[in-house]
Amino acid sequence: MIRVGVAGAAGRMGQTVCEAVEAADDMVLAGRADPALGVELAEILGDVDVVVDFTRPDTALDNARACVRAGVHAVVGTSGWDPSALGGEDGGGKVFYAPNFAIGAVLMMQFAVAAARHMPKAEIIELHHDRKLDAPSGTAARTAELMGGDVPIHSVRLPGLVAHQEVILGGVGQTLTIRHDSTDRTSFMPGVLLAIRKVGGLTESPVVGLEHLL
Ligand SMILES: NC(=O)c1ccc[n+]([C@@H]2O[C@H](COP(=O)([O-])OP(=O)(O)OC[C@H]3O[C@@H](n4cnc5c(N)ncnc54)[C@H](O)[C@@H]3O)[C@@H](O)[C@H]2O)c1
């Protein structure tokens, strides 16, 4: 059984992760950390093998470092932080970060990269709920990075949205639109559970992107 702790356990994503871990028969939910629950991450590190972090852009790096130093693996979903700032921490914990854990979003990024080879002019519109703290989204930034070149990103924040993205490519007399919609946070859970199972076997760290685990 993999002992899993959740950082941000009282949040929208954290609650969904807790339910998914409790429903998985090879995992046990061994800790919930969140200021809203009065529990610090440091208090649960001794009880877990893997921490799943869905917190805030300004805490994800410190949380990942604390996990690595404690010999605990970290699966990070929080966006808006820089995983390349990791390095040099002792302890043996591995870090995996995915800006998007939904398989459809991974496919959207791969299709966009393939399309950009033939239609180099493109722009991204990403649309999220209005409580999201960072803009542009980690998914949009990663898509633009993978597509290469100059890909402008437009961010929409409105109530009623969950997580959505359109990549629009323009050519002579034609456009191509590739769109992904997460209409429910359960869309991210198969990817999160896969990462929990695989993070301990990574041969390098940090690893960024769900495509590396598929
Ligand atoms: N990678 C993905 O697939 C994916 C999908 C959805 C959301 N996200 C990202 O996940 C993050 C969380 O989103 P959300 O909608 O659940 O936010 P949220 O505000 O609902 O939840 C964040 C929770 O983290 C807690 N928190 C803050 N600091 C903490 C700390 N130091 N230790 C532990 N907990 C702490 C807060 O109290 C809150 O309960 C955001 O960065 C969002 O962009 C990623």
Side-by-side strand order of the widest sheet:
2-1-3-4-5-10
Number of helices: 6
Oligomerization: single chain
Strand content: 25-35%
Q: Which regions contain 5 or more consecutive residues with pLDDT less than 50? A: none
User: What shape does the CA trace take?
Assistant: globular
Count every beta strand, where a strand is a DSSP E run of 2 or more residues: 10
Catalogue the ligands.
nicotinamide-adenine-dinucleotide
* Helical proportion, percent range: 25-40%
Keywords:
28% helix; globular; 214 residues; alpha/beta; binds nicotinamide-adenine-dinucleotide
Short description:
The chain has 214 residues and is α/β, with parallel strands linked by helices. The chain contains 6 helices and 10 strands. It binds nicotinamide-adenine-dinucleotide (NAD).
Topology:
Blueprint: E1 2-7, H1 12-23, E2 27-33, H2 41-44, E3 50-53, H3 60-69, E4 73-76, E5 95-97, H4 103-116, E6 121-128, H5 138-147, E7 153-157, E8 163-171, E9 174-182, H6 189-198, E10 207-208
Helix pairs in contact: 4-5
The structure holds nicotinamide-adenine-dinucleotide.
